[in-house]
Each structure stands twice: as structure tokens, then as C-alpha cells.
Amino acid sequence: MRQVELAGGFGFQHLNFTEATVPEPGYGEVLVRIEAASLNSRDVRMVQGAYNPRQPLPLVPLSDGAGTIASVGPGTAGWSVGDRVAGCFMPLWTSGRMTHEASRATLGGPLPGMLREYAVLPAAGVVRAPAHLDAVETAALPCAAVTAWNALFGSGCIQPGEWVATLGTGGVSLFALQLAHQAGARVLVSSSSGSKLDRARSLGSDAVINYSEDENWGSTVRKMCDGGVDHVVELGGSGTLEQSLKAVAPGGTISLIGALAGITGEVNLTPVLNKAVRIQGVWVGSREHFQSLNRAMEAASMHPCIDRVFLFDEAVRAFEYFASGSHFGKVVIRLQES
Q: What is the SS3 string spanning the chain?
């Protein structure tokens, strides 16, 4: 089988196609024929050496993938050859609270990822694909969509009429927009791109703000949204947290998901105390979260926002395109036809 390996060092120049033997599933495992895989910020940073400089190489990258079961090992009741599935980012986190063991076993580093034609996965580490989505769309779900679902409905519980602010127009933000809108919440999207904000409106955003034109955008959001938003999907980290604290309403929640604008820095904690703000870290979610997301997407006939699909031979170009930041939604690599 063909696969892409990061070997000999970090950087896109060290991504190469290699040949490997198709693995055999053992007890409690299934062999998945991967048809599509999608990129996340974590994947790009992993390949660049920024996410974990001590990550052992070689590594098959990408956490997200979807396809069909090609064979099953013993102890896999409920699964059959031909079932359409997606892999879970943390195959050992099935439900309940995340454990140290589960958090240390993640696809795309340290475990081999999904940029390969076949992958053996735990039977408890895959979920059925939504019936209305193809492999390309399903491959967009495992990290970004599950993260948004966990933030809004797993660790949080938004209500109709509440305000949700989501930062940026990457995968997590757009899934948060779609899911919150479907739940009857009002959504505000921030971006530095006017054209991307226009596209966010077309997906259902009730309000938008261009943070490059307003350095005190948190206060502006508070005025726009009836005294503040009830929930902030925070992807900027230390670089945007101060503004998110201004934007959030008393008693509101900030789901801290990413650190695209910085991982360290000084933050004034007074608003956290004075406004009784809840700050929660969200790292993707469990298999149970994934299954709940899929049921919701099926019920609403919801489709993910796909920016661009690359062929398998164009895998390195897909990484370069994602790193450019010009995408709106998910970037997917099609490994083989369904």
C-alpha cells in the first residue's frame, strides 16, 4: 500500500511517498481502507516540528480519515466488511472523562496517522459515517467537528437564543457556526478577511466583526450582542483571550481550543472573577461525542464546509495550501475513489 511518511527531519520537504505491507487486524481491531483524509492545524504543526519537536520519526501524518472496513479481526461484533466508518482522534477515549492513557494515544502523532491507503484501528476507535455524507465529507469530521460539538454540547450546553462567538473561519469555527445556528443560537464570527466574513454570513452567521479593523473588538462584540456573548469558541489562545474576556457576558463560558495567536503571555484574570466566567479547555472529544455529532448532522442533513479537495499525489501541496491560511473550511485529500 502507498502511504506518506515524514522521515529524516521536520518540514514539508521531508514528506515522501513510501510502500508498506497492508496490515492485518488482530483481536478487537478492524482494517479500514482509507478513502479520504483531512488536515488540521495540529497536523501542519506536527510536520513542521512545532507541535512536538521530540516526536519520533518516521511518522504517517494526519489525524482525520474515513473509508470502509476491508476486514475484521476476532472480537469485533457489530462491524462488517463494507461498513463506512471514520476513525476517532483518540481511539482509546470511548466515553466519560478523558484519561491520561487516551490522551497519549492520538492518531497522526504519536500513533501513525491516516495518510495511507489502509489502517488498522481498534473497533472501539471507529464510528459509523453519517448516512448522507460521502468519504470526503466524513473525513472532515473527526477533529474539527467533534471539537466544536464537545465545546458547545458536550462540555457546554448552549440554548436557543443565546449568543455564540467563534474566532476565525477554520474548520472548528465553521462547524461551531453551523451547529450553533442549527440549535437556534445566534452566532458571531470574527475574521481579518472581509470576503470570508461574507461567506460566514451565507452559512448563517447573525453578526460578524473584522478584528484587523478593530483592535478592541471584544468591547465592540459586547455592545453588539446584548451585553456580551454567552459562549466564546476561543482558538487564538493568549493573543486573543483578553478580548474574549471582554466579549463574554457575565456567567458565560470560554472554550479554549487553540493557541493560533500565542500559547503564553500575561492575561488579566480580574474579568474571570468579576464576571464569574467559566474557562474550559477542549481537546477534541470522545467516541460518544462523535456519535452524538453524527446523529445531529444526520437529523439536520448538515454538510461540512469543504474548501478544497486534493488528490493523493498532491498531498504535499495540500499541506502547503493549508499552511498559507487562505482556506475557508476543511482541506481534504482524496486517497482513492469510494
A: CEEEEECCCCCHHHEEEEECCCCCCCCCEEEEEEEEEECCHHHHHHHHCCCCCCCCCCECCCCEEEEEEEEECCCCCCCCCCCEEEECCCCCCCCCCCCHHHHCCCECCCECCCCECEEEEEHHHEEECCCCCCHHHHCCHHHHHHHHHHHHHHCCCCCCCCEEEEECCCHHHHHHHHHHHHCCCEEEEEECCHHHHHHHHHCCCCEEEEHHHCCCHHHHHHHHCCCCEEEEEECCHHHCHHHHHHHEEEEEEEEECCCCCCCCCCCCCHHHHHCCCEEEECCCCCHHHHHHHHHHHHHHCCCCCEEEEEEHHHHHHHHHHHHHCCCCCEEEEECCCC
